[in-house]
Amino acid sequence: MLARLERFFEFERLGTNWRTEMLAGATTFLTMAYIVLVNPAILAQTGMPLAAVTAATCLSAAFGSILMGIVARYPLALAPGMGLNAYFTYTVCLKMRIPWQTALGAVFLSGVLFLLLTAFGIRQLILRSIPRELYAAVAGGIGLFIALIGLSRAGVVVADPATMVRMGDLRAPQTALALVGLVLMAALEIRRVKGSILLGVLAVTAAGWALGLTHWQPVSAGWSSLGATAMKLDVPAAFHVGLLEIVFVFFFVDLFDNVGTLVAVTRRAGLQGEDGSIPRLKQIFFADAAATVVGALTGTSTVTSYVESTAGVVAGGRSGVTAIVTGLLFLVALAAAPFVGVVPQSATAPALVLVGSMMLATISEISWTDPLVAVPAFLTLVMIPLSYSIANGLGFGLVAWAVLHAAAGRLRQRDWLLCLLAALFLARFLYMAAA
After folding, report:
1. Residue 386 phi/psi, 5° resolution?
2. How far apart are CA 140 and CA 149, in angstroms?
3. CB-based contact 200:188 (threshold 8 Å)
4. Cα–Cα distance between 307 and 260 in angstroms, integer?
5. Most confident of the ranges 8-12, 178-182, 282-286
6. Kind plus residue range of the DSSP H or E element containing 167
7. Whole-number mean pLDDT of the chain?
8. How far apart are CA 338 and CA 284, in angstroms?
9. What is the tens place of the pLDDT at every residue in 353-365?
């Protein structure tokens, strides 16, 4: 039996073994386990039950990672995406005042759209039409967006009617605790301690309790709590509030996240073809799309591939077994669900800031000396946090790219799809201005 599994996962060709794969899977889990604490804390602000979202987070991460390992056979782990959960909470639910049930319906529709476009090869076509530099800019912009949210929740940055934002009171106990947490998490990350963010969140939580800054009442959690969000999505209402405004953003942001992570992990693992191609691309997209559908059905925001998977690759992971082990550990993590409510904002806020800083690494891939590339990438990068919308940043970048390349006579016939996407975003901006 083991010999058959080794042949299926191509252990010999990849130069790996069971011990290495299991260790790599555990390493990946430790580097991304913070999502079990952070994702519910973010989504609970929409009014979603904390315990149910925790269960949905663990279940969707387990399903997506295991499916990726079996179907695509890559060491790619999945979980509800940072940035996407922020868009779900702060833009869709809080800013646009859309009920979380309707937002889940939009996530479900985006997942179904993923599946359809993947089946017909359109998703792969869209992938090839978007300039690589904008992938990097979107990831960096999401990083700034997440960091801004974290700094705001920590009280480091507050609103100001004259200057829009200003520095908060750093002497406030919760703010000071959050800053100490940020230093601690960063120090652990510098020392390459596995699970640095998770350890930092737990340490700040313990300090908050010791200092009397945290108040918590136990809540029921586990599989039984899942019923509060499972199958509560409102798909008809998602159509009503506007397909382009929500589903369109969920689709493209997830696409960019998935592609960026995919390229980074496969390049580091040496799993790309000689021409830079990625084998079994359709299966990868299928696993990602199916995980998003299941996530929406259980009660969480868009599920996507995690760049923390690179940690498992560095530890030696090369096959789908790495992702399967990570998924199984997410099922085990469900046992910690009753304790998630003890985590204060001062503990999760620095985690958002640190994750945001890590996501900025991608902007090194942008050719900043070429205005045709730099201007669209810059607009994408800054408009995401400044407009508090991933959609606006993405739209500005695509429109600027198409307009500047057309003005320079650098548009090619194969850029028709990019121009179509830019036109759709431009129409959206004009519609929003007239509304």
Report:
1. -70, -30
2. 14
3. yes
4. 8
5. 178-182
6. strand 164-167
7. 85
8. 33
9. 887 888 788 788 8
The C-alpha atoms of residue 313 and residue 308 are separated, in whole angstroms, by 9
Per-residue pLDDT tens for 291-349?
999 999 999 999 998 877 877 887 788 999 999 999 999 998 887 666 656 678 888 78
Tokens 């700094």 — which residue? Answer: 151
Give which of 370, 288, 292, 359 is closest to 323, Cα–Cα: 288
* Residue showing tokens 């045709």: 372
The CA distances from residue 203 to 178, 198, 269, in Å, are 11, 9, 33
Q: Are the C-beta atoms of residues 368 and 389 closer than 8 Å to each other?
A: no
Q: How far is CA 81 from CA 61, 95, 372, in A?
A: 10, 19, 30
Distance (Å, whole) CA 27 – CA 48: 30
Beta strands in 254-356 (DSSP E): 303-305
Cα distances (angstroms) measured from residue 337 to each of 218, 298, 331: 10, 15, 11
Burial of 50 (0-12, 13-18, 19+ CB in 10 A): buried
Residues 300-330: b if buried by 16+ CB within 10 A, e if exposed: bbbbbbbbbbbbbbebbbbbbbbbbbbbbbb
Q: What is the pTM of this model?
A: 0.74
Q: How confident is the model at residue 107 (pLDDT cuts 50, 70, 90)?
A: very high
3-state secondary structure of 353: helix
